[in-house]
Amino acid sequence: MKSSTIRTPDAEARPVRVKAREVCVFYGPKQALFDVSIDIPEKAVTAFIGPSGCGKSTFLRCLNRMNDTIEGARVTGRIELDGDDVYDASLDVVELRARVGMVFQKPNPFPKSIYENIAYGPRIHGLASSKADMDGIVESSLQKASLWDEVKDRLQEPGTGLSGGQQQRLCIARAIAVSPEVILMDEPCSALDPIATAKIEELIDELRENYTIAIVTHSMQQAARVSQRTAFFHLGNLVEEGPTDQIFTSPAEKRTQDYITGRFG
Ligand SMILES: Nc1ncnc2c1ncn2[C@@H]1O[C@H](COP(=O)(O)OP(=O)(O)OP(=O)(O)O)[C@@H](O)[C@H]1O
């Protein structure tokens, strides 16, 4: 596939980082996704919305092969990251998951210190050649996740001792620490209170300057606040996708209109 660009409402055309074509997913005999094709541009947030069970998380997990970990799951079609076939048999999946990081619904820090939560990934990927190097990666990752000031004096304390919102920012810092190109977020605020949610949304907005972000959200308000592009899924189909303001104000499809006006969902 040729490289291309895509327009986001805030800026000039952005290069496409992730290309999915005719992606189908099966869980055993049951088909959960039907021929999903989408381009995801860099330095923008793409939101996946739609009613429960429509396949948003399933599709997100295709992008870094997290579905490989689900027994009976099968993916067909093609997904490219910067032109590389994500499902190529010779591709190193551990490497892929460093390039395409993931943040989950419930914050899931390792049962280790705050420092170790960040240092673990860079260590296994050989990204630091000295203790000073590693200290630098830990600090800059926590800075980028807007957590440094809150934890700099307690780096040796357990990550699990932080508040829910801090834990989620720790998980974002952990993803950032291995220098990903893409960050996937699966309802990253669903376990958080409104103040912690606002902080994460602010952070997502900052992160998009440097990363390609795809986020699954149940909240249309959140999609409208944080994303530049929105994709609406229904019953395993990608119904339509486009600039967020267009999807919310003048969608092309009646099903999208019905969903965003609360007629179902
Ligand atoms: N591990 C699994 N095994 C079998 N079926 C699954 C599995 N995970 C998801 N499914 C099914 O695939 C379909 C899509 O689920 P998915 O979780 O991707 O939807 P979703 O839009 O993210 O839903 P929600 O918003 O409720 O999280 C659903 O019918 C679901 O039951």
From TrEMBL:
Alphabetized InterPro entries for the sequence: AAA+_ATPase, ABC_transporter-like_ATP-bd, ABC_transporter-like_CS, P-loop_NTPase, PstB-like
Protein's UniProt name: Phosphate ABC transporter ATP-binding protein PstB
ABC transporter domain segment(s): 18-260
UniProt-recorded Gene Ontology molecular function terms: ATP binding
Coiled-coil intervals: none
Family, as annotated: Belongs to the ABC transporter superfamily.
Keyword annotations from UniProtKB, A to Z: ATP-binding, Nucleotide-binding, Phosphate transport, Transport
Gene3D superfamilies assigned to the protein according to its UniProt record, in alphabetical order: P-loop containing nucleotide triphosphate hydrolases
SUPFAM superfamilies in alphabetical order: P-loop containing nucleoside triphosphate hydrolases
PANTHER family for the chain: ABC TRANSPORTER I FAMILY MEMBER 17 (PTHR43423:SF1)
